[in-house]
Every structure is written in C-alpha cells, then in structure tokens.
Amino acid sequence: MAAGKIDLKARLGRKSAAPGAPPPGAPVPGAVSAPPGVGLPQGSVPPQAAASRPPAAAVSGFPQPAAPAARPAPAARPAPQAGVLGPSIPPPPGFGPKPVAAAPSAQPPAAQPPAAARPNAIRIEMTEEVVQAQKAGRSKVMLLAAFTLAIGLGIGYGVGGLAEASKGADAALLGAQSLVKEIEAANTKVSELNDTLKAAAGKVKEGKYPSEEIEKLGAVDIPFDGTNLVGKGIGRYNATAVSLLLGYSSAVADVESQTEKLRRLFGAFKPQWEQIEAEAKEPKVHWGLVVADGPKGKWAKMTPLAKPFSVKEWASEVEVGKSKMSVYKKGDPEGSEVIPVDPTTEAGVCPNNIQLRLMGALLDLGSSIVGDSTPGHEVPGVIDQGNKLVDQLKKIGAPAAG
Predict the structure, then answer these.
(1) Which value, to the nearest 10 degrees, does the dihedral of the CA atoms of residues 341, 346, 348, 353 take?
(2) Cα angle, residue 333 at apex, residues 331 and 339 outer, rounded to 5°
(3) Are strands 337-340 and 323-327 parallel, antiparallel or unpaired?
(4) Which of 345, 347, 329 has its CA nearest to residue 337?
(5) What confidence tens digit (pLDDT) does each residue in 179-217 have?
(6) How far apart are CA 79 and CA 93, in angstroms?
(7) 36 φψ region: left (φ > 0), alpha (ψ -120 to 50), beta (else)
(8) Each residue of 324-352: pLDDT tens digit?
C-alpha cells in the first residue's frame, strides 16, 4: 500500500508543505475545484507536476489514475488567484471574469513650464493723514481740470460766436451793396415809365390815341420784387432800412399792377377812340334839343340821338328813344321837332368820357411814381422811396461818424 500511494507533493511540485498548510487531500481555502468533466481530463497531470513526477517504473510500472479531488459545495466563484500551494487551476472557457480591454495608449501629458517665481510683495502702510492728503490732492486736480474745461468751452463758444457774427456781418454788408445796385436799376426803369406816361397824357389831351406809348407799357418790367430780398442778410439791417425795403418792394409791385391795368384800359377804348378821331375830321351830330313847356314858359331838353348823322349829310328825321321826330327847319319850334346841337360845342358842355377816363388813369399812375405833394396829403412816390432806401443802405458797414 505504501508503494501504491500517490505522492501528492511530488505531483503538485511541492517538496514540503508550508507551515500551517492544510493536510494532503484537504480542500485549499479560496481554491476552486473543477467539476468532473470540466477542465483537464481525468488522469491527466498538469505540466508542472509532470516535470517533477518520478518515472512510472517507480510506481509498480503502471501509471495510476489521479485521486479524485474533494468536491466542495457550490459557492460563488471568486476571481482566480494564487493559493498557498501555487496557482489555482484556470477556469474552463466561458467561465470566470471577462478580460478587460486595454485602454488605448494616450499621449503623455505635455510637460508644464515651470511657474515663474512671484516677486515678493512690498506692503507700505500709510497713515490716515497721508490718505486724507492724497484725497484732497485728487479733488483739487479734478476741480482744476473742470475749471480749465469750462474756460476752454467758454472761449471756444465765444470765438465761434464771434466768427459766425463776423460772417453774418460780412454777408449783410455784401447784401446791402447788392441791393443798392438793384434799386438804382429799378428806379431807372421807373423813371423811363414816367416819361412814357407824360408823352401818352400829352397825346390824349390833344385828342390823339397814344399807340406808341401803349406799346411801350406792355414791355415795362421793373427788375425788383420780394425775391431780391432773399439771401441779403436783411435781418441784420436796422429797422429803418428794413421798413424802407418792404415799402419800396410793395410800391414797385403796385406800379407794375397799375401799369398793366392802364394798358388794358387803353386797349378796351381803342375802337371808340378811333371813332372820335374820325369824327374830328367829319363831325356828326350826337345830341338834339326838344322844346317843351316849362313851369313859366318854353325851355329845351337835351336828348341823345339813337343814330348820329353826319353834318355833311343833313337828316330830315331822327330817332329819339323809341320814337321818330322831325328835324327843325324854321319858324317856332314845336314839341315834335328836334333841334340838332353843333358837334364842336359838345366837348365844352359834355366832355368825352373816354378821354376823361384815360387821362385820369394816366394821372393816377404818374402820382404813384412821383408822389403827391398836395399839402396835408403828401405821399412819397416810388422814385423818392428808392432814393431814400439807397442812402440808408449805404450807411450799413460805414464807420460811425466821430
């Protein structure tokens, strides 16, 4: 039996048991026994044990089967670890912990530069008096800066205002000089218009139609109106100059309006005027006298004839109103007869209305140009207003008399 016993120490590759090791055949704590049919086949020996195993001849010449290991109760399988007697039997495929995948190799962290050495802080302790002195100094600096800024702004505003005022004064002076030339040119046109009116009035007084003068009236254009005041800086002129400017502009506009009305009036009366001129060469009877009983005797009534007749072609019968009457021939006039009135005496008794109206229109326009010197009703004309305005404008920019 002694020779037939299997030397477990020799099979396990152990020459001697460690102190405190469990006896042969006892289960090793922490080791997992493989169940039958799993792992190595029965009768096989691990490679380590086979190397230290004595030859088969030493054991009666036949290989003996390995003694079956004790089968412990099923328990949780801890992770395989080396036991006291050596490495445990590896678990069969499909059992045991799963291999952990190796983490991908990471780049080694870059070497951090060495931190610079911080200088040693120097701390200065200041007394309360020093702190207050510094605050007072800063306040003075701020006040001085604010005061300097205010002075700078004031000087800048003053200089800018003076520059703008200088520009405005220069513009006003140039505007006044320009207005002087424009007013003088306008007064020249007004004087020419006045000469035209004088010539027309002389012809009308003689009983002639002023065709040439009326044609000139249509071409009158006084070069001055409200637009001449724009951009001349009149806001800087004195009150007298501004008042004269506005008055002159209004007077010029009134003269131009009257001139246009006069031209249209002459045009409307031209046919009648031509008739008057023709009758001056060949007079016609326009009026007649009708004798009638008065309060205390006979008297004559003047009546216009519906159809005037020529002196060269004496009429025997005329129309008075809606009735016809005989022209007186001789004897005592009766109420049914008309005594013709001498045409040459008509103008002395019954002035020509057309001539009077045209003459009156000419005188009115002339008064607007040269003014009215009637005591108590003095009215300055356009020419006088222009002359006064020129004198006033020439004073703008002139040095004050000492």
Answers:
(1) 150
(2) 110
(3) parallel
(4) 329
(5) 999 999 999 999 999 999 999 999 998 888 999 999 999
(6) 14
(7) beta
(8) 889 988 888 777 889 999 988 877 776 66
